[in-house]
Design a protein that fits this description.
Elements: H1 4-37, H2 46-58, E1 65-66, H3 76-86, H4 98-111, H5 121-130, H6 137-153, H7 156-166, E2 168-170, E3 173-174, H8 176-184, H9 193-202, H10 206-211, H11 216-228
Parallel strand pairs: 1-3
Antiparallel strand pairs: 2-3
Length: 235
C-alpha cells in the first residue's frame, strides 16, 4: 500500500516537476535551433506555416512566396527604412527596448487587453520564427526568452539579415526579395528610398496594406519614414 508521503511526492512531481522539465526541453529546442541558424538559413518559420495553412483553406495548392538573399544584396534603403520605422535603437539595445515595452504595458492596462507589444526587431524575429500572432503576456514572456537567445548567439547583422528574409510584407509574401518583386517588379538590391520607405510602413499590418496600397495613412507615414531614414544606424 502506497504511503501518504509517497503519494504526496507523486502529486508534487506531476504538478511541478514535469511541467518545469517540459518547459526546459522546449527552451533547449529553441536554443539549438538558434545555434544552428547562426550560420545556416532558416526554412519555413512559424508565421510562414501559419499563413500557408490559412491560404490553403481557400486554395489547397496555395504557397507562400519567399526568396532568400544575403545581407549585402538587400538595399541599404530598405534596411534604413525598416530601422527608422520599426526599431530606431536596434543597433544599440540588448534586444529589448525597455522604455517602449513600458509604454506598451501602460497602453494595454488602459485598454484592459493586449493591443500593443512594444517589440524590437529582435523580438519580432523571435515571434516570427517560433510563435504565433496571438497576443498574451505568456507568449510575450516566451518571446523575451527567445529574444535574449538570439542576441546572445548572433550578432546584430545576422539577426537583421534573417529578419529581412522572413518578415511578412503582404498576403503570402515573405522577405525583402519577394516583397520587392511583388510590389515593384525589382530586386531587393535595387529598391529606391521611396519604395523602401513604403515597404517598411507595410510591416505592422502587411495583409491589410497589400489590399489598400493607396491609403492616405500609407502615403503620410511613408513621408515620415523617408525623412527619418538618414539618421538610421545600420548594424
Amino acid at each position: 500500500m502506497m504511503s501518504k508521503s509517497a503519494g504526496k511526492w507523486r502529486w508534487v512531481k506531476w504538478v511541478f516537476i514535469v511541467p518545469i522539465l517540459l518547459f526546459l526541453a522546449v527552451q533547449l529546442y529553441f536554443l539549438l535551433q538558434i545555434w544552428w541558424w547562426v550560420d545556416h538559413n532558416p526554412g519555413m518559420t512559424s508565421f510562414m506555416r501559419e499563413q500557408q495553412s490559412a491560404l490553403r483553406e481557400k486554395n489547397p495548392n496555395a504557397n507562400i512566396t519567399q526568396l532568400w538573399v544575403p545581407y549585402n544584396r538587400i538595399s541599404n534603403n530598405l534596411k534604413r527604412a525598416i530601422i527608422a520605422s520599426e526599431d530606431a535603437n536596434f543597433s544599440d539595445h540588448d534586444g529589448v527596448d525597455w522604455e517602449a515595452l513600458q509604454k506598451a504595458y501602460e497602453k494595454n492596462n488602459k485598454k484592459h487587453k493586449v493591443v500593443s507589444g512594444g517589440s524590437t526587431i529582435t523580438q519580432q524575429l523571435a515571434k516570427n520564427l517560433f510563435l504565433s500572432g496571438s497576443r498574451s503576456y505568456v507568449r510575450k514572456g516566451q518571446e523575451l526568452i527567445i529574444t535574449f537567445m538570439l542576441e546572445t548567439l548572433m550578432d546584430k547583422e545576422r539577426i537583421f539579415e534573417i529578419y529581412l528574409n522572413v518578415v511578412e510584407f503582404g498576403n503570402g509574401t515573405f522577405g525583402a526579395e519577394a516583397a520587392a518583386r511583388h510590389y515593384y517588379g525589382v530586386s531587393a538590391a535595387n529598391l529606391s528610398a521611396p519604395q523602401a520607405a513604403k515597404l517598411a510602413v507595410l510591416l505592422p499590418n502587411p495583409r491589410y496594406f497589400d489590399k489598400h496600397r493607396d491609403s492616405n495613412y500609407l502615403a503620410r507615414r511613408t513621408g515620415v519614414i523617408l525623412r527619418r531614414m538618414g539618421s538610421a544606424d545600420l548594424p
